[in-house]
TrEMBL record:
The chain crosses the membrane at residues 20-41, 84-106, 127-148, 154-173, 180-202, 214-231, 243-264, 298-315. The keyword Transmembrane helix applies. This is ABC transporter, permease protein, putative. Keywords: Membrane, Transmembrane, Transmembrane helix. It comes from the Bacteria.
Length: 322
């Protein structure tokens, strides 16, 4: 167990730039752009004689809000916090994609695999350490950074509103930062299960390809999808090709992006236009998102992911390019 812990630390040290600094820089840029937007709005408003919340008009408007209106304000604040994490999650998807592609290939490319094989570390431990790093370590770091950036976003909103004489702290109490943080962190195990086939496929390409694993990992599913669509176009079979694209091609490449399960998975978002503001964010609640555990699609993907990872371990044992 201690060996596995040090293997995880090795992965973090070697990928500190992508695991840690990529989310930090993304969150920082997002906050900076928001700050620049606020400053631009204030300057342009003053230049044209417009001032949001002048006098106590906005204060009276807030005081007159009923419970439904205040719920909408709280939802807007929650969305502002989630939006930062959404941007970081997008970057995380690319980080995991390229990390997995290079995880087993780079050792063979620079011949450092000979050094690692000389140590009392099994190939299974090596591959599993990279699997855990991609499915748990990197998402955990990214979400923690996203939560911190989201809290800073709320503080920025409070600061701007306080400049207009509004009791911003009262509004901030309408937000649910702890609930949002718990939902995001609690979704990590579910995302790990959902991403299993994609991570397994990328690790397999990284362990198997003698060169250019990116092309093999990306082009093979896409070319296969094109051929399936062509056969369908030629009338060689009457099965819909959309299933292949969404359940094979997108699962193999897009499942590494957090939230992809609610975009093209079995529990994709179906928001009722008549739902309340709070209900429209219900898909973020763990009680809702974990309904995915009852999806056959999820567990088939996990089984496929296990097979692909086992194949990656096998190629790691026999292929050192020496």
């Amino acid at each position: 167990m201690k060996t596995f812990y040090w293997l995880l630390k090795r992965e973090f040290w070697e990928n500190r730039g992508s695991f840690l600094w990529a989310p930090v820089v993304t969150g920082g840029v997002f906050l900076l752009l928001n700050l620049m937007g606020v400053i631009a709005a204030e300057v342009l408003g003053a230049r044209h004689g417009m001032q949001v919340g002048s006098g106590d008009g906005l204060q009276r408007l807030i005081a007159a809000m009923d419970a439904g209106d205040l719920d909408k304000v709280g939802t807007v604040l929650d969305v502002s916090m989630v939006s930062v994490s959404g941007m970081i999650a997008l970057v995380l998807g690319f980080v995991v994609l390229f990390y997995c592609l290079g995880a087993l290939y780079n050792d063979r490319h620079d011949r450092s695999i000979l050094f690692w094989k000389s140590l009392p570390i099994s190939d299974t431990q090596t591959v599993l350490s990279k699997l855990v790093s991609a499915m748990l370590v990197a998402p955990l770091i990214a979400i923690v950074v996203g939560v911190i950036a989201g809290l800073l976003q709320l503080l920025l909103i409070a600061l701007v509103l306080s400049f207009h004489g509004i009791n911003a702290w009262r509004l901030l109490l309408l937000a649910h930062p702890f609930k949002v943080a718990a939902n995001l962190i609690g979704s990590i195990p579910l995302h790990a299960l959902w991403a299993a086939p994609a991570v397994g496929w990328l690790l397999l390409c990284s362990a198997w390809a003698r060169s250019k694993p990116f092309l093999w990992a990306v082009l093979l599913p896409i070319v296969t999808g094109v051929l399936v669509s062509w056969f369908r176009l030629m009338g060689l079979f009457d099965r819909p090709t959309g299933w292949f694209w969404s359940h094979v091609v997108l699962r193999a490449l897009g499942s590494v992006f957090p939230g992809s399960a609610i975009v093209f998975g079995a529990e994709r978002i179906n928001i009722d236009p008549s739902a309340t503001a709070g209900d429209k964010l219900a898909f973020l609640d763990l009680s809702t998102s974990y309904r995915l555990l009852g999806s056959t699609e999820l567990w088939i993907g996990v089984a496929v992911g296990i097979v692909l990872v086992a194949a990656a371990i096998g190629f790691r044992r026999v292929r050192d390019d020496s």
